[in-house]
């Protein structure tokens, strides 16, 4: 009975957990983490910088620019509602 427990512990530690740890270190650490997760985080930062640089040009602080944006939005909505057949 005691030999069975030691063998079972060894098998679980070396074969099952060891294989799982080895695969997770090789596959997940190198490929998934560095390429996919870090790549997505870097892309998200780049996309945020691009979006802020684009909207910085529109947000200039002049009321006339904001009024023109509202007017264009109203014209687009009215054009959509009046010209699209039902």
Describe the structure.
- With 86 residues, this protein is an all-alpha fold.
- It has a domain of 59 residues.
- The chain has two helices and no strands.
- The longest helix is centred in the middle third of the chain and has 57 residues.
- It is elongated and about 85 Å long.
- It starts with a helix and ends with a helix.
- The mean pLDDT is 87.
Structural class: mainly alpha
Number of DSSP helical runs? 2
The overall pLDDT, averaged over residues, is: 87
What is the β-strand count? 0
Tell me the strand percentage band.
under 5%
- The H-and-E topology, N to C, reads as HH
Percent helix range: over 70%
Distance between the termini: 81 Å
Largest sheet: none
User: Rg to the nearest angstrom?
Assistant: 30 Å
Low-pLDDT segments: none
What's the gist of this structure?
This protein has two helices and no strands.
Keywords:
single chain, 86 residues, mainly alpha, 0% strand
Strand and helix layout:
Blueprint: H1 2-58, H2 63-83
